[in-house]
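To assess whether the prediction recovers the assembly geometry, we first specified each molecular entity separately, as shown.
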Amino acid sequence: MSLPYGKKLLELFKHPHNVGKIKNPDAKATEGSPACGDMVTLYLKVDDKTHKIEDIKFESYGCASNIATASVITDIVKGKTIDEAKKVTWKKAADELGGLPPVKVHCSVLAVDTLRSAIRNYEESHGLIKNKVPTTRNDIIERLKHVMNPMKGLDIVKTGLLFDVIFEDGKVTVILELEESNQFASNLSNEIIEQLQTIWDVKSVEVKFNL
Amino acid sequence: MGYIYLDNITVTKPHEEVVKTITEYLTDKYALATSQFSHSMGLESKEGYDNARHIIANSIGADDENIVFTSGSTESNNLAVKGFAHANKKRGNGLITTAVSERSVLNSMKTLEKEGFDVKILPVDENGRIKLTDLENSINDSTILFSFELANHEVGTIENYKEIVELCNKKGIAVHMDASLGYLHIPIDVKSLPVDLITLTAKRIHGPLGIGALFIRNGVKIKKQMDGGFNEMNLRAGSEPVALAAGFGKAVELFDREKDVVYTGKLKDKLLNLLRERIDDISVNGDIENSMSNVLNVTFHKVEGESTALYFDMEEIEVITGSACFSKSLEPSYVLMAIYNDHERAHGSITFSFSRYNTEDEITKTADAAKRIVDKLMEISPLK
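The predicted structure of the complete assembly is given in tokenized form:
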């Protein structure tokens, strides 16, 4: 019998490392959503002075590739500085797993994206962004590509759910092409605020619905 | 320990006698069956082939010449939908089907749409059935055909087929019923059910994979889709698959309502009860009341389907899921999306399907495994 997965991947799927939550984490990030079929939440504990990752844990609603990749990358970056951790790519994780079927790469990318987001959140909330380039409207739209449209399983930008973004004096207003009574309105609003509130020059985030 | 095979909605285990029949034909009666004027061995093959056709025709109250053998339900559906549309386009270009029809029907319709046909796809309700008023309203002067499934190939919901056929008759349009799931389980008699075309398949009734049939009512025009010789009343070219047809016929003969319907229904009820006892957050997909006795499609909420199915496989229990990660298109089950429009429900769905070869002990083991698997994945899940 040959499932399209290597031994190591299956082993980590069965017994993933670093699973769970961290109480009072220094940073946390979630990427994906149940709607797109994969979702990862990652928690970081980082040493203030050395910026080394002291502890890292994850939770996954996802397939075997996703769970195994999250297990591998959390192992790789534990004990590394956040700068070193940022350099970890999905390719490296995939290699560690003995390769991934091409069709499964996107599940694995999500785990690595979540790590990057968690580190970015850490840097932003700890004032570590060195070149504080002022955020632009386009930067915000890029960020919003990480928020999934639960009705489509793709991000809100690609699916046309995002109607407009206004960014003035640190105040972001995100307008969605959606009724406020929509069953996902509150969930989307929370996800958008979570995505944007850590940006260093964003002071407030408001989500509006135009239908 | 052997596998616990709970994927009977896809393919069933061929009965031993079916395998014996097929082997007999492949070993001794292998001559081409095409001509009744051929040699003795050819005549013997033809006799077996015609006998299989007779058994299948008889099983739905049809005449032998109404049955065309095909390579399975996909080909039958292509021949029914495209063959009918091509042969009847002078009468109109309107075709209708449902959002939960099998891909071979939906994609045949898409192809026909590109050829200029006007295709309408009807939505379904929370059980997976169309509304008769939707069908009635969507029929106009140019409509020529409605195609639907007797029982849905993923959730097992049985359609209101009598009412649908009656309505199509009243409106003067042809009706194709894809019975690739439901054939024999739901008794059909074409003498009392005025349906024009029926898709049949062997793989879900313990016959061989790779053979099916299309019932074509007398007078219904179909255009041949594959060029070649004049086999199958000049509707389907190709050398007759005698051994597979004989195996199909044998499977039909061996169908047993007590074992295949009543007993599998008990297994389904047992598994559902055990799952409900053990697992809190579970939904049944499709209609639980009027559905295939051997199909149970459920969603374990907050855990992802591919991981669940893979864990079942590691416990040697074979099931399938509607999760995107399991599908070839990386999209979640379009059937569940059409019914519920809920990604999480589709991604977390698992189909358990039973046959007479499953035991009650296997059902208990499956429920125990389900509890372990869901608990384990809930531990990892960020949604708890």
